[in-house]
Amino acid sequence: MNAAFGDVTAVLGDDGVAEVEMHRPPANYFDAGLLGDVVSALAWADQQGGRAAVLCSEGRHFCAGLDFGASGRPTPEGLEELYGRAVELVRGSLPVVVAVQGAAVGGGLGLALAGDFRVASATSRFSANFARLGFHQGFGLSVTLPRAVGEQRALELLTTGARIDGVEALRIGLCDRLDDHPRAGARALAGAIAESAPQAVRSIRATMRAGLADRFAAALDHERAEQLRLMGTADFREGIEASRERRPPRFTGR
Questions:
Q1: What is the CATH number of the domain that holds 44?
Q2: Does the pLDDT of residue 73 top 70, yes or no?
Q3: CB neighbours of 29 closer than 8 A, spacing ≥ 6?
């Protein structure tokens, strides 16, 4: 059984595992439309009796977040719509295993952390690179990153913008399993979840994620305000320009 939602396809197998795939290679930059398509695909899988889902993407990288080079500085309305879709994603009831090939960077890391589990390869790359672009983290990372790796490690990753590989990500809890083929590994984990009693899985998941969506939504309100404020600074303009030119940024504090 399969369905298409814009740039997202969903295939539901006989084992109850849905494969939800984003199709914007190679970097799979997102916008509100793409996130809305992911939410719709997961809802469809849930309605069709799916027991777990694999969120994956076509191309070299899982997701590089927003494409500032193409879309420029987001508008307040654009961020509100984008993050509205992010809240819908976190409020979904289907267990989600994220397959991370290549990079999960910035908002792409936020998208990966919105799922329940992450499977990566040793060469996968993770980075909360917002400070290296001159602005505040978004996509609820203020909640989901410390939930995965702890407050102190999250603070280090956010303030340095450090890039870590899959081996280090596994060590600190940013991903849950390593596999040379992340999608196959994610499908195996989702398959194991789907073999468990579905009502029990959902009950356990609801208990373990109690209050998460509300904390996520509240964090987004603060993150959005700080992002919009810092996007008006010279450092943000320098960070984006340096990223486009592939050179170290020269921040001045203005």
A1: 3.90.226.10
A2: yes
A3: 63, 64, 65, 66, 67, 70
Task: List the domain range (segments joined by +) for residue 132.
Answer: 2-183
Least confident of 64-68, 115-119, 187-191: 64-68
Is 68 within the bounds of a domain? yes
Joined together, the tokens standing for residue 244 give: 């486009």
228 Ramachandran zone, left/alpha/beta (phi>0; psi -120 to 50):
alpha
Greatest Cα-to-Cα distance within the chain, rounded to the nearest angstrom: 57
What's the CA gap between 135 and 164, in Å, rounded?
Answer: 20
Question: What is the band of 69 on the pLDDT scale with cuts at 50, 70, 90?
Answer: confident
Is 145 exposed, middle or buried (CB count within 10 Å of its CB: 0-12, 13-18, 19+)?
buried
φ, ψ dihedrals at 101, nearest 5°: -100, 150
Which DSSP state fits 63? B
The string of pLDDT tens digits covering residues 46-65 is 999 999 999 999 999 999 99
Residue 80 within any structural domain of the chain? yes
Assess contact for 208 and 113: CB atoms under 8 A: no
Burial (CB count within 10 angstroms: exposed 0-12, middle 13-18, buried 19+), residue 19: buried
Report how many domains make up the chain.
1
- Whether residue 235 lies inside any domain: the answer is no
* pLDDT value at residue 75: 86
What rounded mean pLDDT belongs to the chain?
96
Tokens of 87: 């809240």
- pLDDT on residue 68: 82
What whole-number distance in Å separates Cα of residue 32 and Cα of residue 78?
8
Virtual torsion, Cα 87, 89, 93, 94, nearest 10 deg? -160
